[in-house]
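Homework help board

Subject: predicted structure for assignment chain

Our instructor gave us this sequence and asked us to write out the predicted structure in C-alpha cell form, then describe one feature. I got the C-alpha cells but I'm not sure how to describe them. Can anyone check?
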Amino acid sequence: MLAYTLLILFVGGLQALAAHVQVTWDIGYLNISRDGSTTWRAIGANGKLPIPPIYVTQGDVLELTAINHLDKPASLHTHGLFQRNSSYYDGAGFITECGIPPGAQFTYIIETRDQSGTYWVHAHYGTEAIDGLRAALIIRDQDPQLLDEYDEDVLLTLEDWGQEPNDDLMERLKTLSLEGMPPNHPSVLINGINTNILQPIRFTPGRRYRLRVLSMSFTYWFKVRLPGHTMQVIEADGIYSRPSAADGLDLGPGQRYSVIITAHESLDYNYALNVTFYSDFIVRIPGLTPRYHQVPIVYHDDAPVKTFPVIEDHEVKWADELAMEPRDEQMLLEPVDQHIVRNVKALIKELDVPNYAFGDYAYDPVPVPPLLTALTTGNMALSPLVYAPQLNAIILKHNHVVELELRNPDTLIVHTYHCHGHAFQVVESGPVNKNSSIPVKRFKGRQPMRRDTITLATGRYVRVRIKADNPGVWYQHCHQEQHNFSGLAFTFIEAPDVMQRTLRIPSEMLEFCRILGHPTQGNSAGRIGSDMTGIKPPLKIHGLADYISGS
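My C-alpha cell output:
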C-alpha cells in the first residue's frame, strides 16, 4: 500500500511539474560534407546537420513543429513513443497521415507522462531520414532512485552516412547485377561528426557515467565495447531493466541502450571506446566492412592509452534482452488470445532491387492511410476486406494478448523489426529449421524484457508479445530502410471500434490529405466495402505459410 501511495505521489508530482517544450524544425535542403570526403544535397533542420538533440523531462509535453521547405511531403516519427490515444501523431507517412505538403507546417503533440529514456525523432516519409532528418530525443527521468545510480549522463549517437542522396542510390542499384556490389559504402558518424575529429569523453575517477548509446543507422550495425571497464545495462529502447553486467553492446538500426560505467580510481591510463561498424549481409572488404573506430576515454591528458589483447566476438558477453529483466517487474502477458506468424519473404530480381514481405504481399502505400479507413468505415473497419492486401493488415481486438512470431527462414539477410505503438515482451528465439543445432533461447524467470526494436537473424525466429491496449493503426516494419521501402512491413489495426469512439484527427491533417490529392474516408481506395478499383494489384511473394489464430 505504501509503494502504491508513493507511486501516486510520484505521478502526481510529474503532472504538477509538467512543462510545454516547444521545438521547431524548419526542414530544408543543404549541401554539406559530413564525412569529410563527399558533399551532396542532404536534408536538415534550421539550416543544420547534425540536428541538435532534443531534451525534455518526463511529464513534459513536447510540441514539435515541422515547417516543410522541401519539394515533397514530409512527416516526423518519434521512434519508441507510444502516442497513446493519439495514433495520428505517430508520424508514419501513408499510414497515420498523408504527410505535410511543401510549404506547410504542422505541430506534433508528444506526451511523455508514461515514458522516459532514450529515443529519437526521424522523418518517416520516403528517404528523408536517411538523408539526414533525424536527431536524438532524450526524456530525462524524475525517479530519484534511478537518478541516484549515476553521476553524469553522456550521449553517444551512431549513424551511417551515404555518399549521395538515397533516391539516387536506389536508382543506381537497379543497374547492378545480383553479383554487383553497391556503388558506395556509407561512412560512420559519431555524435553527428566524422570519426577523424571526435571529441574525447572525459572520465573523473570514481564517478558513475550513464552512457546512452543510440543507433540512428538505417543499414549497418554497431558493436560497442570499452575494454577494461564493465557495463551495467539499465535500459533497452526506453524500458528500464534491472542492472545486468555486459562487456559490449550489439545494436541494429533503431536500437538503444543505456549502461552505467564506473570510472577507475587511477589516472594512470586512458582508454578507447571501440566502435565496430559492420553488416553481416555485405561482402567483407578490408577497410570498408567491417570498419573500426575509437572514441578516446580520457582520465588524464598525459596518460598513455592502455592496450588489451584482441578477443573474438564469441568470447564477449554481449547485452542480451532474453537475459534481462524489466525493472517494473511486468509479468509475462497471458493467456494468449491471438497468435500470429509472419515469415520474411524475398523476391530477387535481376537488374532491380529485391522486394520483401512480412506476409503474402510486399507492403505498398495506398491512397487512403489505413488510420483514416479504420476511423471512417464503421463496423466494416473490423474486417480486413476494407484494407488493401498490400497493407498486410492484421486486426487486433481491444486488450487481447497477442503473440507474434517473426521468422527469417531463407532470405540470407539479417533484419531489424521495429514496432510502432508498443514495446513488446521478448519471449523466445530459435532456429526456423527444427533440425538445426542452433539452441532455442527463452527469457529467464517470469518477467520478460521489453523493447521496441529487435534483430531477426538469418534462419531464426523471434517470439514477442504485446497487449492490444493502445487503439490506433501501428506500422510494423524492418528498420533497414531499403528493406522497408521494398515491402518488408505490415500494419496492426488495433481496436478500430474503440478508435472510432476515442480518436479525433486534427483538421489540418485532413486538409493536408486533400491538398495532396488523397481521399480522407472509405476503404484503401476511398471506396465502399471491398471495392479496390483504382489501386494497382499487390505484389505477391511466395514462401512459407503465414497464419493467424484466435482473431
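Reply (TA_rk): Your C-alpha cells look well-formed. For the description, you could write something like this. Helices lie at 2-17, 144-147, 166-173, 370-376, 481-485, 496-502, 507-515. That's the kind of observation they're looking for.
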